[in-house]
Amino acid sequence: MDLGVVIRPELAPEGLIEHVRRAEAAGLQEVWLWEDCFWAGGIAAAATALATTERVGVGILPAPVRNAVFAAMEAATLARLHPGRFHMGMGHGVGEWMRQIGAKHASQLALLEEAVAAVRALLAGETVSVEGRYVRLRDVALEHPPRVVPTVSVGVRGPKGLELAGRVADGTVIDSLSSPAYVRWARERIDAGRAAAGRRDPHRLTVYAFCATQAAGEAAIRSQVDAQRTEGGVRAGFLAADAPLSDIALTGDADARAQTLKALEAAGADCVVLVSPEARVPLDLEALRLPVAR
């Protein structure tokens, strides 16, 4: 299982390279970036990070504001400049923000499925014509398709979204506070979608996990837990009502964090990406003492 770290968009862009270097020095294999309103652009940040480190993921680009052709063009450019090193994620975007900018659509699932299918076909070098509910293309093909096609994952949580991921994507990104039991269940729903589509290719499951080395970080995680329970996270299934903190986040000492990682790997995670629970406080990577190797 790979380990990565999110460099949160709340951190000023001019510090990105230094944060990437710290992740490299800590032995983490991947750097992940978020495109959240109204912080920083995911593609611009990814291009900068790729000039400094080996493997970069964007998780996620909100499909409602990313035209499928232009999203494919951006991904193809990065994939040609950095073959095999760029991982692209797409998702619904945060509903409140999408409404705020006039980009909230009636069917988020339909939009995501159409966008991901079109992006993957374009990246594969196909000429695409489609007249969908949201994506409409006529004889479109990339002039510079990538020689090494990047992985395209979707960021989803519920059963329909996970099955969609299995049908149309190369991977899935699931959010923080996901217990091993939820990860196992998510993998089952993804596999159901894959079976329905007759797919046998690999499917990469990336799991975000809050991580804390100090009391302030653990308090921030507990605050996130309370917020998710208020917003229906228990009903959605990813957050067990009685789950201990160590089951849904990397907390405690180094041994406890290692046990949580092992449980996530056993549940089906291919990559765990560490997330600081404090928006403007980067993880103290030197203090983590994680079992990583280059």
List the helices and strands and how they pair.
Blueprint: E1 2-7, H1 16-25, E2 30-33, H2 42-50, E3 56-62, H3 68-81, E4 86-91, H4 95-100, H5 108-123, E5 128-131, E6 136-140, E7 151-155, H6 159-168, E8 171-174, H7 180-197, E9 204-210, H8 215-231, H9 233-236, H10 245-248, H11 254-267, E10 271-275, H12 285-288
Parallel strand pairs: 1-2, 1-10, 2-3, 3-4, 4-7, 7-8, 8-9, 9-10
Antiparallel strand pairs: 5-6
Helix pairs in contact: 3-5, 5-6, 6-7, 7-11
Tell me what the structure shows.
The structure is a single chain. The protein is an alpha/beta fold. The chain has a single domain (2-288), classed as TIM Barrel, CATH 3.20.20. Helix content is 43%, strand content 18%. The chain contains twelve helices and ten strands. Strands 1-2-3-4-7-8-9-10 form an eight-stranded parallel β-barrel, surrounded by seven helices. A two-stranded antiparallel sheet has the order 5-6. Helix 3 packs across helix 5 (108-123), helix 6 crosses helix 7 (180-197) and helix 7 packs parallel to helix 11. The chain starts with a strand and ends in a 6-residue tail after the last helix.
Give the name of the CATH architecture.
Answer: Alpha-Beta Barrel
Shape: globular
Q: Give me the Rg, rounded.
A: 18 Å
Average pLDDT, all residues? 94
CATH class: Alpha Beta
Annotation field: number of helices: 12
Offer a concise description of the structure.
The chain is α/β, with parallel strands linked by helices. The protein is built from 12 helices and 10 strands. It has a single domain, classed as Luciferase-like domain (TIM Barrel).
